[in-house]
């Protein structure tokens, strides 16, 4: 599905690309605009620089899921679910490749520390733009493929003997490869690998997390039925790629280039614990509600 508003298709819509501007002279002071009561008018017709590929096809997603559940007595349940998803033919805008040089140019790279003259200095490669941008064509990327595969194991303890618990462990992988269509070839350098938050196809897959563990539980104390609940989340860090921006181009503008393979780095794992204490409320106004005190570690 192509959105009917926003870029790049606003430039295809004739209702968007035409304007008429008037300077109004309200001679009779009736505050009603009438033809002939203008000092001048000017017509604006914006050039339609965007077209849609006649061979454009709908992007699609295939998804397969298999789940097994097993009750372990009356209070416990264990389940395992495997999911695989692939996304093909994403919508992509492109411009004529001839606008850019056919071979890569190189320039100095100050390295991760951003300071010239240190041991991590190197060079980076990019495509120089030789002429201004031409018409934009909305099309598909026929070779792009984004995949997700994940195994989720869940254990459930139903409420009995004053406590309950839910735990889940997920092992997953989200990858992208085969990108071949973009308005600039510089956006196609070092873009295959685990999905970072900025490299996905825009369909909700926000990044590669090899593992996630979640645990939530509640225990009701015998004293005054005060309940103690806790949530634990721990997951692998977000993958990221070092990128150099602001590379000047001959024709116009600048370039941004991934200077390392996609997802060459990963942030530290993230862990969070939330604990809450709740007791039945004795207030007649809020009878049946609870008071809660929470803090996060």
Task: Produce a short descriptive summary.
With 297 residues, the chain is mostly beta strands. Helix content is 0%, strand content 50%. A hairpin with a 6-residue loop joins strand 13 and strand 14 (227-235).
Structure notes:
- This protein is mostly beta strands and 297 residues long.
- It has no helices and 20 strands.
- The strands form six sheets. Strands 4, 5, 10, 11, 12, 13, 14, 19 and 20 form a nine-stranded antiparallel beta sheet that branches. Strands 3-9-6 form a three-stranded mixed beta sheet, with no helix packed on it. Strands 1-2 form a two-stranded antiparallel ribbon.
- It starts with 17 loop residues before the first strand and ends with a strand.
- The relative contact order is 0.12.
Task: Describe how the helices and strands are arranged.
Blueprint: E1 18-24, E2 38-45, E3 50-52, E4 60-72, E5 76-88, E6 91-94, E7 105-109, E8 122-126, E9 136-140, E10 145-160, E11 163-177, E12 193-194, E13 211-220, E14 227-235, E15 239-240, E16 243-248, E17 254-258, E18 265-266, E19 270-280, E20 290-296
Parallel strand pairs: 3-9
Antiparallel strand pairs: 1-2, 4-5, 5-10, 6-9, 7-8, 10-11, 11-12, 11-13, 13-14, 14-19, 15-18, 16-17, 19-20
